[in-house]
Amino acid sequence: MQLMDYKKRTISVAPMLDWTDRHCRYFHRLISRHTWLYTEMVTTGALLFGDVARHLDFSEEEHPIALQLGGSEPGDLAQCARLGEKWGYDEINLNCGCPSERVQKGAFGACLMSESTLVANCVKAMQDAVSIDVTVKHRIGIDKNESYDFVRDFIGEVAEAGCKTFIVHARNAILKGLSPRENREIPPLRYEVVYQLKKDFPELEILLNGGIETADEVGEHIKHVDGVMIGRAAYHYPYRMAEFDARFYDDPTTATTPADVVKAMMPYIEKQLSLYGSKGLKMHGITRHMLGLMTGLPGARRFRQILSDPTKLASGNPAVLLEALAAVRF
User: Fold this and answer.
1) Quick check: 163 and 121 in contact, CB under 8 A?
2) d(Cα 322, Cα 259) in Å, to the nearest integer?
3) How far apart (Å, rounded) are the C-alpha atoms in residues 94 and 150?
4) What distance lies between CA 158 and its chain's CA centroid?
C-alpha cells in the first residue's frame, strides 16, 4: 500500500527502545486501525553491518508504519532509507531527539539539533533516495538553551531541505547529567512552544509529543497542531487507543473489546513461534506487551501474573491467553 492510502498522522505511537518491536506494534494495531506506529530506533550501523531482516521484518497488518533511523552520515542514512522503502515502510523518520549518552557517542540523536545544516543534508540525502515521506523527530531545545529562536531556526533550515513533517517533543533534552528516563520527566513540558511553531510554519505538518496520556488531551492539542504522538501511556494503557479510530478518524468499524484482542493474538503467537522459535523467540517476548490491556478491570492483576508466569509460558501454548482472559471480570 502507498502512503496516500492512509489517513493523516493525527495520532501516532512513539518509537520506544525495547518496547515498540514488531510484536508490540501488531498488538497495538488490533486496538486501533489508523494510529500510526513507529519502530524502535534502528541505527545505520545495525542495518549496514548487521542482520537486516531481524531489524526490518514486520507484519503487513502493521501499516501505516514508520521506520525510525539513528545516524548522522548522509550517505549511510540514504542507503538505510532505501532499505526501509524496499522493505515496505510508509515513512522514514530521523531521530534528533534521543538524549542518551550512548547515542551521543555515535554523534546522533538530540545532539544533532546543534548541527541543523548536517540534519538538512541528511534529510536531503534520504529524500533523494526514496519516494516515501522523510520526517524528523526532535526536542524543543538542548541543555539550558530555551530560546524559541533555536528550535524555530532548526526547523526552518531542515524544512528548506524538503522535510514537511516534524514531530516535536515539547521538552528540552539535557545531554549531560540526566538519564533518558529523567529526560522524559524532569525538563518541563512547554506545549506553547510547539503551538507557536505551527503558527510560524502553517505549511508544515507539526506533531506534538510529550506527556500526553488520554484521548481528551489529544482532542485539546489538535486544536493547535496537526497531530499528537503518544509514548508510554500507549504502552501501559493500550486499550485507551480503542476510541481513537471513531473519535479522530471517523471510523467506528474497528472497535473491538479487550477479549477480542486477546483472542486475536493467539493465532499470531502460534505463527510467530513456529517461524522464529528456533531463533530464540519465546512467548514472553510477545505477551509482555499485553500486560496493560486489562488495566482498571477486576482481575487485571491476575491477568498480568498469568501472562508473566515463566512456567505457564514455557509450553509455548497460546491457550494460556484464555486462562489469563478467564481471570478478568468484564
Assistant:
1) no
2) 9
3) 19
4) 21
Please tell me the predicted confidence (pLDDT) of residue 251.
92
**pLDDT grade for 67, boundaries at 50, 70 and 90:** very high
Q: Please give the grid coordinates belonging to residue 234.
A: 500507549
Q: What percent of the chain has pLDDT over 90?
A: 88
β-pairing, 65-70 vs 91-96, is: parallel
Amino acid making up residue 23: H
CATH numbers and ranges of domains, the chain:
3-253 (3.20.20.70), 258-326 (1.20.120)
Quote the CA–CA distance of 50 and 300 in Å, as a whole number. Answer: 39
Location of C-alpha cell 548522522: 72
Backbone φ and ψ for 66, nearest 5 degrees, come out as -115, 140
Q: Which residues carry a binding-site annotation for FMN?
A: 15-17, 68, 137, 169, 209-211, 231-232
Residue 13 sits at the vertex; the CA angle it makes with 84 and 1, to the nearest 5 degrees, is: 45
- Asked if residues 106 and 117 have their Cβ atoms less than 8 Å apart, the reply is no
- Paired strand residues for 168: 138, 208
Its pTM surpasses 0.90: yes
Give the ranges where 42-147 is alpha helix by DSSP (H): 44-49, 52-56, 74-87, 101-105, 116-129
Coil, strand or helix: which one is 139? strand
Catalytic, 98? Answer yes
DSSP classification of residue 255: -
DSSP letter for 227, please.
E
C-alpha cell at 190: 512547554
Catalytic residue of the set 24, 80, 98, 111: 98
Residues in binding site: 15-17, 68, 137, 169, 209-211, 231-232
At 310, list the grid cell: 515463566
Residue 173 backbone dihedrals phi, psi, to 5 degrees: -100, 120
